[in-house]
Amino acid sequence: MKTKEIAYCGMMVAIIAVLGLIPPIAVPIIPVPISFQTMGIMLSGCLLGKKLGTISVVIFLLLVAVGMPILAGFRGGMAVFAGPTVGFLVSWPFCTYLIGSLVQLNHTKHQLMGYIIANLIGGMLLMNLMGGIGLTLVTHISLGKALWSCLIFFPGDIVKAVIVAIVAWRVKQHHFIKL
């Protein structure tokens, strides 16, 4: 890895951590809060691509695993990987990889729409699918019920996907990040 790439990964880890400072919003029907850190996951795939974006997210999760309280709500440690959010957390590297792959495939003049679609597929559909599976494994509710309850995240995820797509599109348009 080049020094520039290491710096980009470090900045993305910091961005994801800073997004965790925004207090999570409790959801009444499931024990998983709404977090703004998912925007960081989408942003890492959009800006850094599948390789560097995924490396950034894996580093972030390793920092969480060793106890750094950088998840929303100042959570950290191995216990978060045994709780109801495990499916969402485990999905993050896969989501980033998928978003990065979809963005890298889309090199047309309609990049903004490509970013939105990539974020909706990777940052909403895949994340909530894996999150629902994790919720089923931890809480022992049926998969159908878990997936159904994850639908509560869709309106906010759509807004997050669009905001991240606009930010990523503008950053790329002005060549702030050169990979």
UniProtKB/TrEMBL annotation:
Main location: membrane
Membrane topology label: Multi-pass membrane protein
Localization per Swiss-Prot or TrEMBL: Cell membrane
InterPro entries xrefs: BioY
Protein name: Biotin transporter
Alphabetized UniProt keyword annotations: Cell membrane, Membrane, Transmembrane, Transmembrane helix, Transport
Pfam families given in the database record: BioY
Any one GO cellular component localisation term in the record: plasma membrane
Transmembrane segments: 6-31, 52-72, 78-100, 112-134, 146-169
Record family assignment: Belongs to the BioY family.
One annotated GO molecular function: biotin transmembrane transporter activity
Keyword Transmembrane helix: yes
